[in-house]
Every structure is written in C-alpha cells, then in structure tokens.
Amino acid sequence: MEKDAKIYVAGHRGMVGSAILRALKRRGFTNFVTRTHSELDLTDQAAVRSFFEQEKPDYVFLAAAKVGGIKANSDAPADFMYENMMLEMNVINAAWRNGCRKLLFLGSSCIYPRMAPQPMPESCLLTSALEQTNEAYALAKISGLRYCAYLRRQYGADFISVMPTNLYGPGDNYHPTHSHVLPALIRRFHEAREQGLEEVTCWGDGSPLREFMYVDDLADLCLFLMENYSGEETVNAGTGKELTIRELTEKVAEVTGFKGRILWDTDKPNGTPRKLLDVSKAAAMGWTYSTELDEGLRLTYQDFLTNPYRAER
Fold first, then answer.
1. What average pLDDT does the chain have?
2. Can you say whether residue 258 is alpha, beta or left, with left for phi > 0 and alpha for psi between -120 and 50 degrees?
3. What is the pTM assigned to this prediction?
C-alpha cells in the first residue's frame, strides 16, 4: 500500500478497527477516511453506495460488525444475522463497484464447525454443523467471506479475508452480559474485588478450551496480509496456544487482584468444547504474534481502569 493511498477503516471506533488505525498510523499512512455509525449506517445500502461513490477509497479494512458473547448471540440471533449480513454485503459490493484496489474482510473463528478437527485449518470450513449458540453470526460471517471469494473468482477482485480467534485488548466491550468471555470476566472480577465479595460465579463448568489473541497483533497481521497475500481461501489469525476457561478465570482473578472463591454455574452453556486455530498458513508466510496472554491481560486491565466508559456499554 502506498503511504498516501486513501484507506477506509470500517468500524474504526471498535476494538479491531481502532487497532488497525493505530497500526496504520505507526507505519506512516496518513490518508484515512472514517465514518461513525451516526454518520453512516452501513446497513443502509443507498447510503453506503453514496459514500463509496463520493470517497472511492483505494483500500478497505472491513472491521465493522455487530458482536457479542454467548448470551447476546442466543438472545438476538435474527439481529446478529441481519445486521452483519447487510453491512458486509453493502460495503463489499460498493467497494467492488467503485474500484477498490484491495479489501480485507474480518471474520471470526466461530465460522468453523462445532466439532471441527483441532487445531482448525482453513480447509474445514463448511464441512459439518456449526455451534448453535452463535450460528446466526457465523452464517453471516461465512457469507461475507464467500462473497469476497466469489468476486475474486468472477471478476478478479483482490478481496481477501482473515479469521481471528478470540480477541481482547484496548477498546474492548466490558458489558456484563453482552460482551465476550474475557472482558466480561475482567469486569466481574474487578467489581467483585471492589465490593469485597468472597466469591464469583462463572458460566458453565470451566472446561472449554479457548485461544486468545491480543488485538494489536491482529492489526499487525491485517497490514501484513494486505501487503503480502492475495488468495481466495481465508487466513487464520491466532497464537496456536490454548487454555481452559477455568485457567483463564484464574489469570483474570490474579491480574485484577481478586482473592475470593471461583464457583461454576453448570446450568449455563459452555459453548463449543474447543476452538484452536491452525495458524501454520500465516506462519508459512513469515508472520507470528508477539504478545503473550499474561502481558496482554495486564495491558487490557489497564485499559479497563483508565477508560471507565468502556464498562458502561
């Protein structure tokens, strides 16, 4: 990418979009176009088309999405499917129609089957049933991925996709019920320590295995792929390391200073038993992550403490 090329980061206020914008600025890029949700509703096809016709960005990072944890996905599957499908299709189509030179679409590891081989290679996509608790979101993300692939196949569009594992870091959503597991745990344990509680109850039995990636590492990979990869198949983004949710809660309790007991509500869902990405494809291209979980948790907790408004979303 040329340093003065016009770059549109969709979702620049979110955790991923803001990390991509930080990475671009660090690399010396200067010509950005951004819009807040109030300025541009990406589910509005006419508005998106008008925006692209006017701005005609050279490169697009599509990081905008409606996201949430198990409860949010289970409570509102129709909303998750509709909003994500609409914004993805509108942005990808308008970018193609207006001569975008390259687009990177950001998905999620939840696109892979519930009982996928572990670690999950890119090739296992659509080989068996999805996890029911986030099926609607996964279907929307799969559609965006495949649309990029079909535009490449039919029209030669240089549109690529990356599928991140569970992300965390500065700018996360710490809502107590609508956030993902790691930020939700940070808020829960922080508040328990502040209130002097003797115990914290977590969902499930703590047995599921999960992989976590610091969001600035993902942003670094996104820039790497925009400059070094062109292909129809997606690229997994992860660390190749996993731990149980029980182990994660213990790490969060330590970083937040909570000294009480950790209990488990086994009536609540666990979600997918295991989700570890095969990251050999990115590694073969010469890229690997740099932030270990313990350091990333420390940095994320500092973000929580210094940006209290994040906890109110």
1. 94
2. beta
3. 0.93
